[in-house]
């Protein structure tokens, strides 16, 4: 991507890559920054990379990613018209859940990421994304399908929450 958006995204990626003393980064192979179209109106936030994502440096390319692609296709979307990232940019060892401290540490980068993309619609997949962006009071079942207008950093966006594809695969 060309222009100032592309430059800002590259700078953000570089600053995340410079994180020090982070167990996640130290145990990972690649940063998993984003996939899709930075000019899309829709941004999707998952949780954290898994083994496939870590090896390729691309979010949602394993089994959960295949299901996500099918979910998108069912509403006539694909990676050319959405932009995808995660709460955490490095794979947690053994796929453990990211800790509160880790989420807190990566949140300023995520807020910056959302500001740069400035999506009209933000889709949160799973409870980690829900709890981080909206709060811990609600469950996915409470808020699923309801629009939540939210200011994230300087970005006013319409948030919608859904089940994480990994959760759906376990059902
Ligand atoms: N699950 C996520 O939350 N993100 C990915 O990138 C892959 C699996």
Structure write-up:
It is a single chain. This protein has 171 residues and is an alpha/beta fold. It is 42% helix and 17% strand. It has 8 helices and 6 strands. The chain has a 6-stranded mixed β-sheet with strand order 1-3-2-4-6-5. A hairpin with a 2-residue loop joins strand 5 and strand 6. The radius of gyration is 15 Å and the shape is globular. The chain starts with a helix and ends with a helix. 35% of the residues are buried.
- Helix amount: 40-55%
Task: Summarize model confidence as the mean pLDDT.
Answer: 96
Query: What percent strand?
Result: 15-25%
Query: Which geometry do the CA atoms define?
Result: globular
Number of strands: 6
Which segments are poorly predicted (pLDDT under 50) over 5 or more consecutive residues? none
Q: Gyration radius, to the nearest Å?
A: 15 Å
Q: In this structure, how is the largest beta sheet organized? A: 6 strands, mixed
> What is the CA-CA span between the terminal residues?
38 Å
What's the helix-strand series?
Answer: HHEEHHEHEHHEEH
Query: What is bound: which ligands?
Result: uracil
């Amino acid at each position: 991507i060309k222009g100032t958006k592309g430059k800002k995204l590259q700078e953000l990626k570089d600053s995340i890559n410079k994180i020090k003393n982070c167990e996640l980064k130290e145990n990972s192979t690649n940063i998993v920054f984003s996939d899709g179209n930075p000019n899309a109106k829709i941004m999707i936030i998952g949780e954290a990379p898994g083994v496939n994502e870590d090896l390729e440096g691309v979010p949602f390319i394993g089994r959960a990613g295949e299901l996500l692609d099918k979910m998108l296709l069912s509403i006539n979307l694909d990676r050319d018209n959405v932009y995808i990232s995660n709460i955490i940019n490095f794979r947690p060892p053994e796929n453990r859940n990211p800790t509160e401290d880790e989420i807190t540490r990566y949140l300023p980068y995520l807020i910056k990421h959302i500001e740069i993309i400035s999506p009209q619609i933000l889709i949160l997949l799973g409870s980690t994304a829900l709890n981080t962006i909206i709060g811990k009071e609600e469950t996915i079942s409470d808020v699923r399908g309801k629009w939540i207008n939210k200011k994230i950093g300087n970005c006013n966006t319409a948030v919608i929450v859904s089940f994480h594809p990994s959760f759906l695969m376990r059902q």
